[in-house]
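Worked example 2:
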Amino acid sequence: MVSSKCRFFFILFLMGIFSLYLAGCGSSQPTHEDEAVTDTWSNDESTSSDSTTDEQATVDEQTANTDTTEEQTAKEPQTQTVETQQPVDTIAQGPSVEELQQELDALKSENLQMQDRLSQTSNENKSLSTKVSDLEAALAAAKSARKEPSSKVISRTASAGKSSPAQIQKYTDAVNTTKQRNYSEAIHQFESLLNSGIKDDYADNCYYWIGESYFQLKKYKEAIDHFKQVANYKFSEKKDDAQFMIARSYERLGQREKANDEYRKLVELYPASELASKAQAKIR
C-alpha cells in the first residue's frame, strides 16, 4: 500500500519535473518568437512608416497640387474679371455709339418740335400784327373823323394889336405840331387860335399854316382857299410864301395855266422875294 502511494508521488514528481522542463523550453522559444515578432513589428512599423511617409508625401503633393490648382483657379477668375471689367472701364470713359445715336435722335425730335412751335408762334404773331394794324387804322380814322376840321374857310376879321403871351405860346405849339406832321391836329389848333380872337400879328400866320397843313394832306383846294386869306392882311410877312404855295397847289391839281399865272403874279408883286427866282424858273 505504501509502495503504491510512493509510486504515485514519484510519478507526480516526474511529471512535475517534466513540466518544468517543458516550461523552460517554452520560455526560451517564445523569446525568439518575441524577437521575430518584434522584428516583424519593426519591419511592419518601418513599412508602415514608409507607407505613411509615402502617403503623407502623396497627400502633400496632392495638397500642393490642389493649392496650385486653387491658386491658378483663383488667378484665372481675376484675369477673367479684369477682362470682363475692361469694357466697363471703356464704357465709363464715354457713351457708346448707341447712346450717342439715341441722344442725337432725341435732340432732332426736340428741334423739330421747337420749329413747329416757332412756326405756330410766327403765324399767331402775324395774325396779331394784322389785327393791331386794322385797329390802329380804325382808331386813326375815328380820331381823324372827330378832329377833322371843316375845310370851309371862315373869314375872320382879326383885331389889331399884339397877341397875348399865352396865345403866342399856343401858336408856337401849333407850329411844332405841324413840324411833327400831325397836320389834322395842327389845323384844329390854329383854328382854335383864330376863334379865340388872336390878334392880327399872328392871325395871318395861322391861315398860312392851315393852308400848309392842307397841302401836306393833299387837299389842294382847301389849301388854296386858306393861302388866299393871307393876302387880306395889310401887313404880313407870309404873303410871298402864300402866293408861291397857291401856284404849287394849282400845279399839283394839274392846272398848269393857273399855276403859271400865279407864279407870274408872285414875280410881279414880290420881285424882291427870295421865292421870285424859283417862281420864274417854274413858269413854262
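The radius of gyration is 72 Å. Confidence is low (pLDDT under 50) at residues 28-49, 77-83.
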